[in-house]
Specification:
The chain is an alpha/beta fold. The chain contains eight helices and 13 strands. The protein has one domain: Rossmann fold, CATH 3.40.50.150.
């Protein structure tokens, strides 16, 4: 990492560290609902992951562990990993409150193979994870090294093209503003986050990398994984634009005005039984 990348990395991590307490209290994450038995996982994730009971499952960039613990509740033997110390501490506290067994490890995702020293049946990530990583090639390598031969990866993620659109005017009509193929990160300066509307964070500046979907899929293929499925969806798993409404399927949809745009995508891949070590 050069000096500028280190500065961006530190800025992002400080912002994540500060956001944890807000997110644990946020109605969007709905921790009280989870403790009463609500499931934060989406049907696309449950279908995409396939059977988890009794399997070892690693959740990369697990934040404060809500989804990790939802997989534990479904019978997986889970490890959650995140580079934020407050996130890992909150995840451990939540596991204790929920009475669920889980291990949470503080580590950068790229150090995870060395730090964990074990391989998993399943690797799960996504829902706002990949955009914090400047380069997806080493990420793909890390995922491949964390899977046992035959092990599977699944993630559901924001489609990078969704970030290129901005709502305008009172109706929130979407206008294309950015370049899908840019390589520089998007710098933002905001006092709140996607789940803390109205908060006043001290760490306001962050950087996200909107990798085209082809880069993510190619990074996994370069690392020796077999891509089983790559899908795109015209709806979101969160309230991305003000004009969106939550439908009975649980996803957030745009009004049916213009042609649909891809807002979310998913990838299912596996490590072949024979191949690179
Ligand atoms: C939006 S959360 C995604 C997790 C989950 N979908 C959620 O919403 O709870 C992004 C997480 O990535 C973590 N993160 C960002 N960069 C990381 C890195 N290089 N290594 C490990 N964790 C990282 C942050 O600390 C944060 O908890």
């Amino acid at each position: 990492m050069n000096g500028r990348e280190r500065q961006r990395y530190r800025a992002n991590r400080a912002r994540w560290d500060e956001s944890v307490a807000h997110h644990v209290a946020s109605p969007d994450y709905d921790v009280p609902g989870f403790l009463r038995g609500a499931d934060p996982l989406f049907p696309l994730e449950v279908d995409g992951m396939g059977p988890v009971r009794g399997r070892t499952l690693l959740h990369l960039q697990c934040h404060f562990g809500l989804d990790t613990l939802a997989w534990a509740r479904r019978g997986a033997r889970v490890v959650g990993l995140d580079y934020s110390a407050p996130a890992v501490a909150a995840a451990r506290a939540l596991a204790a409150r929920a009475g669920l067994t889980a291990r949470f490890v503080r580590s950068d995702v790229l150090d995870a193979p060395r730090r964990l020293g074990e391989r998993f049946d399943l690797v799960y990530t996504g829902k706002g994870a990949l955009c914090w990583l400047p380069d997806l090639e080493p990420w793909g390598e890390a995922v491949a090294r964390l899977l046992r031969p035959g092990g599977r990866l699944f993630y559901l993620e924001d489609h990078p093209i969704a970030e290129d659109y901005e709502p305008t005017g009172r109706g929130g009509r979407l206008v294309r503003r950015h370049d899908y193929f840019r390589s520089a990160p998007l710098r933002f300066d905001e006092t709140d986050t996607y789940a803390t509307r109205g908060a006043r964070l001290r760490h306001t500046v962050g950087y996200c990398w909107l990798h085209p979907t082809s880069q993510a899929v190619t990074a996994l293929a370069h690392a020796g994984l077999v891509i089983d499925e790559f899908r795109e969806y015209p709806f979101s798993y969160w309230h991305r634009y003000p004009a969106m409404r939550r439908a009975a399927d649980g996803y957030w949809h745009l009004p049916r005005e213009g042609p649909p745009i891809p807002l979310t995508y998913s990838v299912r891949a596996h490590r072949p039984l024979r191949g690179r070590d």
